[in-house]
Amino acid sequence: MPASPRTDRWMAQWLTGMPAETHLSIIAMILGGVFDKVPETLRICFAHGGGSFAFWLGRLDNAWHRRPDVIATSQQPPSAYVSRFSVDSVVFRPEALRVLVDTLGATQVMVGSDYPYPLGERPVGEVVDRSSFLTPDQRAAIRTNNARRFLGIR
């Protein structure tokens, strides 16, 4: 985000700027029609849990269906594209991870660290381990299996 008095203090560029830019990147790829043009085999992973994308997906779908300036900017509503990308698990709270898993599916979330940046999760994967709502299979998928599939490692 551009420097401004609002973002120059309290690490606001890190606390809001980076997740906001991630959210905007996902929106640009969906509403800009990128996912309609690239092969489904292209693997993309967004950091910062995808920003606020999962939380605002209903708002995006609503705009796609009701706003003339958003309608048909992509072939399908935004929710139809959630299987086309992954996000990392660096959201720091089980409640936030639950929103990701409930919205995108456990297959689209993989453990992240934000290393080497100072706000990364330490120890890596802690939020996944603390998320009691996850089944053992979901935990294994997020901790290891999704990254293996993403990277083409068997």
TrEMBL record:
It holds the Pfam family Amidohydro_2. The keyword Lyase applies. This is Amidohydrolase-related domain-containing protein. Gene3D superfamilies: Metal-dependent hydrolases (3.20.20.140). SUPFAM superfamilies: Metallo-dependent hydrolases (SSF51556). It comes from the Bacteria. Residues 17-153 form the Amidohydrolase-related domain. The keyword Lyase applies. PANTHER family: 2-AMINO-3-CARBOXYLMUCONATE-6-SEMIALDEHYDE DECARBOXYLASE, ISO-OROTATE DECARBOXYLASE (EUROFUNG). Keywords: Lyase.
